[in-house]
Every structure is written in structure tokens, then in C-alpha cells.
Design a protein that fits this description.
This protein is an alpha+beta fold and 363 residues long. The chain has a five-stranded antiparallel beta sheet with strand order 9-3-6-5-13, sandwiched between helices. The protein has a three-stranded antiparallel beta sheet with strand order 2-1-14, with no helix packed on it. The protein starts with 5 loop residues before the first helix and ends in a 5-residue tail after the last strand.
Length: 363
């Protein structure tokens, strides 16, 4: 069964489960925004033609709203495409054993993983080749079943800037070496967090034994050639600005059960996941970042401060011209592009013009 706004329906019908004091404030805030999105609660603009008025409600721009997430993703992709040089790129996915995932439910620790992934790459490339590279890192905490699975997706330039000021087009990224750096960094981070009291551990001796075991086993770090920046930006856009589940995957909603489609990588086929509303909401809430937490982080040559001082020089060195930052699309053009309808046309296809504004209303 297809639902027009399934996530909003789940929030509305189960509000008593999440709109309570025990829910993390940032979660309650984005859920409330998502419910108010496109309603009188946020106000509206009135557009009129000769024979019709059209009410266009304001949107929430929240992290739990799938519609706003689509528009935010498109805007981010356009801006990043213009800002990045046309060079080769590598994609690296830094994962960890599943026994370590629960530690990173601590949002303070989870936000350090993109930093650690970037420092892993920077340290290895600098030590091996003496290069500076550009890095974009995205923290990803969910899989298709909405289970918690902490890992980091990284895009890094295939080559880098030498100390002499010349650009080296490509280097060999050693997956085993990067894995060793990453594994050592994650274990050190966890030990330091336990020592400083960031993590409250009941049985530290057992945890230390487990950490010792994990630092001496195989970890999976995936490495692939992306060829161009477009490939990564399309891929990353699915995770950077949207809820952890696409609304098209939700197949049924009832008071007893919510079902949705997911990929089972072991079985190599699509399966149906069944959760109670409480379980579904709990799974969703664990992936919502804090209010000021960045979903996408840039490092090295792509770090904001570095880009401001050396960005133009890198483009010049590559024989390229920096692309101007794309002008934001008007709200009407962005809606037409992302959702396929023109809000400035009435039902007869006549152009409408702005008439007046309706203030936000209590609902």
C-alpha cells in the first residue's frame, strides 16, 4: 500500500510514544517540525489567478522530513559540485566490528568518527607520499533495517598537493595500511573515552579484554575508485540530508505493526521488516543527530578555512577555473525540479501571482 506522507502519519498516530519528556529534546523538536511541515502551523503564502487562489504552506526544513530532505539534498549536491575541482576521487568506507557499535550511540563519540576517518587518511598519505588531500566525510549510523551501524563514508582526492606546490594526479591507496590506522584510532578513542568518563562502563576489565580482542582481528575497510565527484555526491546524497528510511519503502501502517522493505545482503534479496510503532520510532530516533551536528564534514584541502586561502590556487594549478557558487533556486523552481509540479500555475494552467501571507496558526 502506498501512503502519501507515511512518516508524518506514523508520527501523528503515535504522538504519545515520542512527545514525552524522556525523549531527547532534539528528537522531539524535529518530529514536531515534521508534523507541522506544510500546514497552517507554519503559515502560508496565498497566490491568486483570475479564477483561483492557491495556498502554499511553509515548510519545516527539518531533519526528519523526507520532502524537505529531498530539497536540501539537491541544494547540497549543486553547491558541492561547483565547489570541488574536476579530478579523480576515491571512495573509502570505514566500518568496525558490530560489538563496537553500541559505544557510538553516544552522540559525542559518534561525531568524532568523521574526524578520525579524515585524520586516518591524512596521516597515512602525508607519511607515505608527503601530500595534502581533499576529504569529505559523512557519518552514517543506519542500515536498511534501521538498525544502528556506525560507519563513515569518505570521498578523497585520488591524488594530492605536493609540498613543492605541484599536483600529483594519483597515488596508490593501501587498504591494509588504512585499516591498521583506522583500527588503532578507534580503539584508542574508546580507551580514552572510558578513561575520561565519557563512557560509563560497568565492567571495565571485560570491556578492555574485548577491545584487546578487536584490535587484533580483521576489520573491513572498503576502497573504490569513483572516477568523478558526481558519483559520490549522488551516493552520499541519499544519507546526508534525509531520514533513515525513504517513505516509498513503507508498505503498511497500523496500530499494531509497521512494515517496510529492506535489503538483506546475506540473502541478496529484498525482505519485509515488521516492527511495532514503538520499535519503529525507537529505531528512527537513534539516528537523528543533535541540532547543530553537521552531517557532512570537510577536511584537508576541502576544509572551509583551507578552501578560503588556497582553493583558487588549487584550481589554477590544475588548469581549471573555479565555478561560481550556484545561485539558490527559487522555491517554485526547486519544487518543480524535485517534485514535478509548478506551484505558480493554477489547475487550468494559468499563472498565479502572490496575493498575501497567512501568519502561523496554532493547531
Amino acid at each position: 500500500m502506498r501512503y502519501k506522507h507515511p512518516l508524518k502519519r506514523i508520527l501523528r498516530e503515535n504522538r504519545s510514544l515520542w512527545d514525552v519528556k524522556s525523549t531527547r529534546p532534539d528528537v522531539r523538536s524535529v518530529f514536531i517540525k515534521a508534523l507541522e511541515c506544510g500546514t497552517a502551523a507554519l503559515g502560508a503564502e496565498i497566490y491568486a489567478s483570475e479564477g483561483e487562489e492557491r495556498v502554499v504552506f511553509h515548510t519545516c526544513k527539518g531533519r526528519a522530513c523526507s520532502s524537505c530532505g529531498v530539497r536540501a539534498t539537491s541544494r547540497w549536491q549543486r553547491e558541492r559540485w561547483a565547489a570541488l575541482p574536476d579530478v579523480g576521487y576515491k571512495g573509502i568506507t570505514f566500518t568496525m566490528p558490530d560489538v563496537l557499535w553500541p559505544f557510538f550511540r553516544n552522540r559525542r563519540l559518534a561525531t568524532l568518527l568523521p574526524v578520525l576517518a579524515a585524520k586516518t587518511i591524512e596521516a597515512w598519505v602525508r607519511a607515505k607520499f608527503g601530500l595534502s588531500v581533499g576529504i569529505i566525510a559523512i557519518l552514517h549510523t543506519f542500515n536498511s533495517r534501521m538498525n544502528f551501524n556506525a560507519h563513515v563514508h569518505v570521498m578523497v582526492t585520488a591524488g594530492g598537493l605536493e609540498t613543492s606546490g605541484t599536483w600529483r594526479s594519483t597515488v596508490y591507496y593501501d587498504r591494509e595500511a588504512l585499516t591498521n590506522y583506522w583500527r588503532r584510532g578507534v580503539i584508542r578513542l574508546l580507551r580514552a573515552s572510558i578513561r575520561k568518563g565519557v563512557l560509563d562502563i560497568d565492567r571495565p576489565t571485560e570491556v578492555e579484554a574485548m577491545l584487546h580482542q578487536q584490535e587484533n582481528r580483521w576489520w573491513n575497510v572498503k576502497l573504490q575508485s569513483l572516477g568523478s565527484k558526481e558519483h559520490f555526491l549522488r551516493y552520499a546524497g541519499r544519507y546526508a540530508r534525509r531520514p533513515p528510511i525513504a517513505r516509498r519503502r513503507i508498505t503498511s501502517i497500523s496500530t499494531e505493526e509497521i512494515t517496510f522493505l529492506a535489503k538483506d545482503r546475506k540473502l541478496r534479496r529484498q525482505i519485509t521488516v515488521r516492527l511495532t510503532p514503538a520499535e519503529f520510532l525507537a529505531a528512527w530516533m537513534q539516528h537523528i543527530p543533535d541540532e547543530h551536528e553537521h552531517a557532512v564534514r570537510s577536511f584537508g584541502l576541502f576544509a572551509p578555512r583551507t578552501t578560503a586561502t588556497t582553493g583558487a590556487a588549487v584550481f589554477t594549478m590544475l588548469g581549471q577555473r573555479p565555478k561560481p557558487r550556484p545561485r539558490p533556486l527559487s522555491w517554485s523552481l526547486s519544487i518543480k525540479r524535485d517534485f514535478g509540479w509548478d506551484p505558480l500555475l493554477d489547475r487550468q494552467g494559468n499563472r498565479v501571482a502572490w496575493s498575501r501571507r497567512i501568519a502561523p496558526q496554532s493547531v
